[in-house]
Fold this protein.
Amino acid sequence: MKTQTCIRLALILTAAMATGCAVPTTGVIPRGDDMFTVTRQGSSAWVSTDSLKTAALQEADMFCNSRGKRMKFMYNKDIPAGPLGRWPESEVLFRCE
């Protein structure tokens, strides 16, 4: 009985740790030369990189608007879901002009 309880507890802790590693967004990160990135990560393998890119672009736009500037899209990198719990990601590089 104690062995089953320990196994269940270990599985619950492992699942909680894996879930805790997922970062839904990095927020706006300065990259130098007046450039910034925002990375969005899906919370499951079924989240599309297109929806993540859209959310990252909206966050970038709000950031630039808060500075009284317009967001200029520079580059996007999408990473699809993969094995061993790698969730999809979309990174947007932008500047505020």
